[in-house]
């Protein structure tokens, strides 16, 4: 781990883990400040987990979460006050340490010269040139000029970001493209259901980010703070500015664990788990493997969420494992769904209901998880049936698989790119922004009414690439997205209901019905999910090889 000294008594660090506490204590630190909000990353422990571990080693822990790039002057004052009141030395951390270094720099603006701030932070490994400009500019980051400029800037290096970068490079190799993303690791998130079902190992779903950024594409390892589309500028964490000719926005969405009272305190223990986090999916399988009797509750929050089938996939694979071990008769399965239907496309429901009945699962619709008490093994749900007053019900559990509420990232929701609900506002066919014609978006963050899945991003990337290249040539959009999304519903080990659909619930099968009938559970679909889709993702989609993803052309009416 990195312990980067900013000044006597204060250091900054990238994300720390609970098992780092011995090293932190041995280094002489007495207190920790967390400047990273919970839920920023799929491999991120909650502050509560950090605080619990710190307490065991006699370290004080303070939570001062800062949305990336949103460091206010008041935040800096609060940070300085914390340094004055906490026992020192103090270690502050966030995703990379940049927010903590920014807070320290701003908190010292009246005590140190900008030259001293720059020298101290540079020695610690942080570029605070943008922060110094902000100090010199009366607290505002100027965007008339930038620290760097590119023809295309892509925000987010998830499935959509890397795929669209590769698709652009395949069409126009000389393009100067930059991808902005602070993460060191890229995850194949569709694989986490399989980890929770005991089929994949967690490490099979992860690759280093540097190994996946397409050749010739610049990687800016930073978080985005804000957009100034009128100036074609993106402001980064640390107040640096990147200018662009065209922008693609695809940072994914935010998992809002804190919206459920008591959840963050008990995740990963007391039988509470989630396949929506890299480090928790193995705990799901641990619980399933060890459970012999009791109640297992699987939750689904209000839409929109990424992969609407994932909450019930966890239920089916768990039920199958218990059935194979002969303990299913002693396990009471409940699927508590905030919505009113099992699956939004009715054509797939009959096959799914056969498995609901096979595992003797109770379907509780309009049940939204709002609170958890892990040690007491209790959960509370708001029941919001139509035309009925909201009722809160309590349920005990032995295992609780939670799918967290999901929103657009904070820096998107407050930006001029967002619609009233906080999602990037695009034309659902061309994926071009409705207001700013040099901005496009794809993946989970945009507001087209499609399923938020990796398969959707696989189809969207070539559409954005085709339309952006056409725009560079002075033409109109040439490709359209039909809303395609795919949800391989793992109903048992060895069989999958392959749901493929587009806008309006239209079925969009990729294979002949004789090969794979998506409305029925098939072994062929399982083979596709287990053996073919991971290499299609790593070696096809992320490399610009658009297998099964040819853009649909716009035709004149």
Description:
By secondary structure, this protein is α/β, with parallel strands linked by helices. The chain folds into three domains: 133 residues, Alpha-Beta Complex (Protein-Tyrosine Phosphatase, Chain A); 252 residues, FAD/NAD(P)-binding domain (3-Layer(bba) Sandwich); 151 residues, FAD/NAD(P)-binding domain, CATH 3.50.50.60. It is built from 14 helices and 29 strands. It starts with a strand and ends with a strand. The mean pLDDT is 92.
Quick recap:
With 557 residues, the protein is an alpha/beta fold.
Q: What order do the helices and strands come in, and which of them pair?
A:
Elements lengths: L3 E4 L2 E4 L7 H6 L4 E4 L12 H10 L3 E4 L9 H13 L4 E4 L4 H10 L6 H11 L4 H8 L11 E8 L3 H13 L5 E4 L4 E3 L4 H5 L9 E3 L9 E3 L3 E5 L4 E4 L4 E9 L4 E2 L16 E2 L7 H10 L3 E7 L9 H16 L5 E7 L11 H10 L3 E4 L1 E7 L4 E6 L7 E6 L2 E3 L4 E2 L2 H4 L25 E3 L12 H19 L6 E2 L4 E8 L2 E7 L19 E2 H18 L11 E2 L4
Helix pairs in contact: 3-4, 7-13
| Separation, N- and C-terminal Cα atoms | 60 Å
CATH topology of the largest domain, which one?
Answer: FAD/NAD(P)-binding domain
Number of continuous helical runs? 14
How much of the sequence is in beta strands? Answer: 15-25%
The unreliable regions are none
- Assign a percent range to the helix content: 25-40%
Using the coordinates above, name the CATH class of the largest domain: Alpha Beta
* Global shape: globular
Strand element count:
29
- Rg over CA atoms, rounded to whole Å, is 24 Å
Q: Number of domains in the coordinates?
A: 3
User: So, CATH architecture of the largest domain?
Assistant: 3-Layer(bba) Sandwich
Domain Beta-lactamase hydrolase-like protein phosphatase-like: 3-110
Organism: Yoonia maritima
InterPro entries: BLH_phosphatase-like, FAD/NAD-bd_sf, FAD/NAD-binding_dom, Prot-tyrosine_phosphatase-like, Sulphide_quinone_reductase
Keywords: FAD, Flavoprotein, Oxidoreductase, Quinone, Transit peptide
